[in-house]
Write a structure and sequence with these properties.
With 182 residues, this protein is of the alpha+beta class. It is built from five helices and nine strands.
């Protein structure tokens, strides 16, 4: 965790391994693409402390905060899409026209996915018009251990879960161990 704390803030991403053979710890930390290095360091420090408190005997764990995620395991997970760790969050308020809103949300997230997988930080944000001076905002990001092809695959996979997660809701997230949208 100390290694990730030192490595992550300058670029917003860090990976590392400590130990050898059957006694190895692999770790990854990622800050949201728009988080500055000071806030990134604070988030990784908080997440690292909390993950050790909550999961003291686990061989693998992931913790998510608004500004970062920290993940560790005794197996080599680098460069592999993590479909096993995922959760949904959604706003309790419903939109007035769910069919149109859902389509516009999917379109925006798909557009952002196209931008993110070729971006250096594998991160993209954007907005689209909903009408009546209302806007829809979106954000997507992948962990940078993924190839750009796997980033796109990861994002497309979670965007396809939009109906299960957030159908007609004013806001929502699908957060995974390798990528997420908001």
């Amino acid at each position: 965790m100390s290694y990730l704390y030192l490595k992550t803030p300058p670029t917003g991403f860090g990976v590392g391994s400590v130990g050898q053979y059957h006694d190895i710890a692999n770790g990854l930390s990622l800050c949201r693409g728009d988080v500055n290095s000071t806030d990134c360091a604070a988030c990784v420090a908080e997440a690292s402390g909390e993950i050790r408190k909550r999961c003291p005997y686990n061989k693998g764990s992931v913790i998510w905060y608004d500004n970062c995620l920290v993940k560790y395991s005794n197996t080599d997970f680098f460069g592999k899409i993590d479909n096993g760790n995922r959760f949904y969050m959604w706003n309790l308020r419903n939109v007035s026209n769910p069919l149109s809103f859902n389509q516009k949300t999917k379109d925006l997230l798909s557009q952002l996915s196209q931008q993110a997988y070729v971006a250096p930080k594998m991160y993209a944000t954007g907005e689209s018009e909903l009408g009546y001076s209302e806007k829809l905002y979106g954000l997507v990001q992948c962990t940078r251990d993924l190839s750009s092809v796997d980033c796109k695959k990861c994002l497309d996979g979670i965007i396809s879960e939009l109906p299960s997660c957030c159908d007609g809701k004013e806001g929502g997230r699908v957060v995974g161990g390798s990528c997420y949208f908001r």
